[in-house]
Design goal:
Rossmann fold
Length: 224
């Protein structure tokens, strides 16, 4: 029979491991986090491909991916954009994005740096398109953060937010409790629309794949 001391030690170790794994999902570090970023590339691939099918990237665009994770979305943007930027506040994600886009970075077509959505290191009116794939629900101040993105968008430039974790989704009963543990926000489609409008966007459009439980919301910066 295990002693109470050994049982307490075991449970403490399991709790520490669980806390570490949860932290890696939200903010991958430079070591184990690179593996998590790679796994995110794979797990989000179908969702990202579906979302891009809903989006027209203008020719000669300058694009930004906020919360670039493992870097796959950056790579997809760079297939059509002239210049593509990626930012993430997690060192593991930045390292993984650098590795995944090494050639494009060397060619000067892709740029990746560590930064927060709360304070983007870019001038006003720089981007034609900003994407945020499976990350917006972690933002500390969603409305303010979306206004910061609005600042760096060109007039008529668009923001696209994509997630499979939202209120009313097919898998919400399973994902909801997990995402709550990660401190994520829980928004419905209508909540997303209201958030875009409150942050100053117009022409808000919502695409939903109810079978897969995916949603993509886009909004444009006003021209005047």
């Amino acid at each position: 029979m295990h002693s109470p001391y050994l049982l307490a030690l075991r449970y403490s170790a399991e709790l520490c491991l669980a806390a570490y794994l949860i932290r890696q999902v939200k903010k991958p570090d430079r070591f184990a986090g690179r593996l998590f970023a790679w796994l995110m590339n794979r797990s989000h691939a179908a969702l990202t491909d579906w979302a891009f099918a809903q989006l027209k990237i203008p020719g000669g665009a300058t694009a930004l991916d906020v919360g670039c994770g493992g870097g796959r979305t950056i790579h997809k943007l760079a297939e059509q954009a002239i210049q593509t930027y990626g930012i993430d506040y997690a060192p593991g994600s930045v390292a993984a994005s650098h590795a995944d886009n090494k050639r494009l970075i060397a060619e000067g077509r892709v740029h990746v740096e560590r930064a927060s959505v709360s304070r983007l290191p870019f001038t006003d009116n720089k981007f034609d398109l900003v994407t945020a794939i499976e990350t917006q629900y972690y933002w500390p101040h969603p409305q303010g953060n979306m206004r910061e993105i609005l600042r760096v968008l060109k007039p008529s430039g668009r923001l696209m937010v994509v997630t499979e974790s939202y209120k009313g989704a097919r898998h919400d009963a399973l994902l909801g409790p997990v995402m709550k543990q990660l401190g994520s926000s829980r928004l419905s489609g209508d909540d997303h629309r209201a958030l875009f409008l409150a942050a100053g966007y117009e022409g808000v459009e919502i695409a939903e794949n109810r079978r897969r439980g995916w949603i993509a919301v886009t909004g444009a910066k006003p021209t005047a």
